[in-house]
Amino acid sequence: MKTLVLILGLLCLSVGAISQSMPAIYLNEQGEEVVPDSATHYRIIDRKTDAGYTIREHTINGTLLLRGTFASIDPVWRSGLFTWYHPNGTKASQVHFEDDEPAGVYVAWYENGKVRERGQFEEGQRTGRWVTVHRNGQKRSEGRYLYGRPVGEWRYYYDNGQLSAIELLNRAKGPALAFFNLDGSPFVGKLQRRQMPEFPGGEQALLDFISRNTQYPRDTRRKGISGKVYVSYTVGEDGRVGQVRVVRGLAPEADNEARRVVERLPQFQPGREYNVPTAVTYTVPISFAPNFSLFGSSKPPRTPPTEARANFPGQQY
Question: Under CATH, what is the fold of the domain 24-191?
Answer without folding.
Answer: Outer Surface Protein A; domain 3 (3.90.930)
